[in-house]
User: Fold these one by one.
Assistant:
Number 1:
Amino acid sequence: MDAILSATVKPPLLRAGAQPAIAAGEDEFAAATELELISILQGPAFRGSRRSAAFLRFVVEETLAGRQDLLKERTVGAAVLGKAPGYDTGADSGVRVRANEVRRRLAVHYDTLAPRAGIRIELPPGSYAPKFMPLAAQLGPAARRGLAPPPMLLWQLAAPSLFAVFLVLIAIRGDVESNDSFSRFWNQALAGRTEIAIAVDADGPSSISSAMADAAMPIESLAGVFQVPVHIVAADRQVLAPRSCVIRMSIRQKPSAPPLLRLNGASVFRGEDGVALWLWADTADKLRSAAQTLASRAGFPEVQ
């Protein structure tokens, strides 16, 4: 193991104190889980959402530390989302919405990339404590008997390649091409702005519905692309910073002006009075689909 990771060189995203244990070979299963977590966080499914990445990292590290029994909704909300320690979990669904988003992103990750360290990380429904599944445990008995090397040797052999991939990802992450329609659109929308505020319909006097919060989440990926903070706020209930790029998302209020473009059943308008964009649709699902397109180069339309 010391040939793979020294006790002093710490790659990005590895939690403090982990590299000496990995170098010493103290717990190879935990080391494999650490490496798989890094692989997931550096992958495209999580790279664009700092909150989802922070959520997954927190629950994985707490479980590796033996504190999985403390992973309750209120605990996670306070530690990851900055909620007050005694907040009302019945009225605030932020942790549940974020957990569902993490499960969705994990599914997307493993739909496109196989586990890189011999471990698959899962977040079971109804739980905030992740499960760590060795690849051999997912095979049938006959298949396991046909494996000549023990399972941990497989991930050990793959670990040098895994770190090489990390170095490549770190070198290329964050690059934004300036000559495509995606960049031209967002460079114009963000001109002079220092953050993005996603203002969505409020559900009641002080909360955002889980459906609307879920619809807004794809736009969080722009935080990683443009290196600006992204916030989801209730429309008309929070004073926004003067230099915010405001993205208004609504299923209730529709602008009267002609739309700039139509995306997946939603309409995108140029905003007025400092509002950069306005997304309207008759359902939250259509809003989410449009937000996914706006936040991704894949399928982004050419805007005249």
Number 2:
Amino acid sequence: MTALVLRSLGRVRVLSASLALVLAALQLAIIAAAATYADGGSFERLAQVVPAFVVQTMGPALTSFHGMVLFAYFDPLIVMLLVQFAIYLATEPAGEVESNLVDLLLARPMSRHVIVTRTFLVMAFGTLLMSGAMQATTWAGLWWMAPRDAQWPAARTVLSLSAHMTLIAWCFGGVALAASGWARRRGAVIGAVGILAIAAYLVELLESIWAPARQLAHFSPFHYYAATGILAGTAPEAKHLVVLGTTALAALALAYWSYQRRDL
């Protein structure tokens, strides 16, 4: 098992390191911008001119130092990047079927569930590396660039945002891993589940303005990431984390079942 995990991680080490560096650089840039706003007293002026619907959507990200510092944790592009990365990592079994490498793997005295476990561990570690890089950069950037009188974000808030973001990635990664139990083309799974993730986010985005979307939004993992509520301290964080964690485990169970029954 350890050899399989290390081999899979080695295949994506350059991509993983590159994405982690990009996220770290982005987080540093956001902290630098927030420090500039705080030094110039611009947050007070922004609070007066920013429309109410923008504040409702982005929370205190534009009206406070600690809010802007955490903007990357709920920026749609960053969250979707993490989700798509999890999907890519989770489709390795489909890639092995496509390249016929699965024949060499299963020629060894190895149970099929080992391949699913290996892939989940790689996907989980890869996404944790991304969120961990953001967290480490957040605290390092605050120590380096935060103004003396600026209010830092609470450690619990940072951890909660990171946990929600990571679990959403695990949900879609689990779905991709389950789909890989039937698919024979990695690209097909990446495309299908990637589009599903985008559609799920769009449904959540439309939930507040289109009545039919309100019913569908409950099936979207993004519905259970109330970032503005977490920043304000009003979100049911424990409930949402349980829902996301249960969804990820259900997808993983489906992945074990589908891969065990597939015809190789």
Number 3:
Amino acid sequence: MRSIEVFLPKMLPSTYLSPNRGERKTGRVPAIISHYKREMRGDVCLGLLAEDAVRALHSPLDPARMTLTLRCTSARSDGAYRPADIGNAIYALKAAIDGIKDAGLIVDDDLTHLVELTGRIERVKSANEEGLLVMVEEVEAQSLKPKQ
């Protein structure tokens, strides 16, 4: 079974990707939100493609399970989003998931190809330790069949 683990330093979502700042709230401009989604998607894709382990993959991991760990300090005022709950983190990292697909680690993020998605938040002590840890593991297709 194939797997890959890559840490992308300084890769945190923008505060504009927080679900607590809903698209219709004052000061929210859909074009700005869209910009930050595209930026995160591209940054994650390029960050992964810069890794030898990712370039060495000859085909996507399929079907796969993925764990995304957002390593961050407590809130700072630098424009990066450091969520306090995992649901918000996963929402903010949707563009990162698309970047992971673009980099060729997974075929797609639908239930057929990505059978399990786990999110974690890990508090670190310094800004130098912040970033996104991406772990993707191929799952045996036989283990997905319903038990009779």
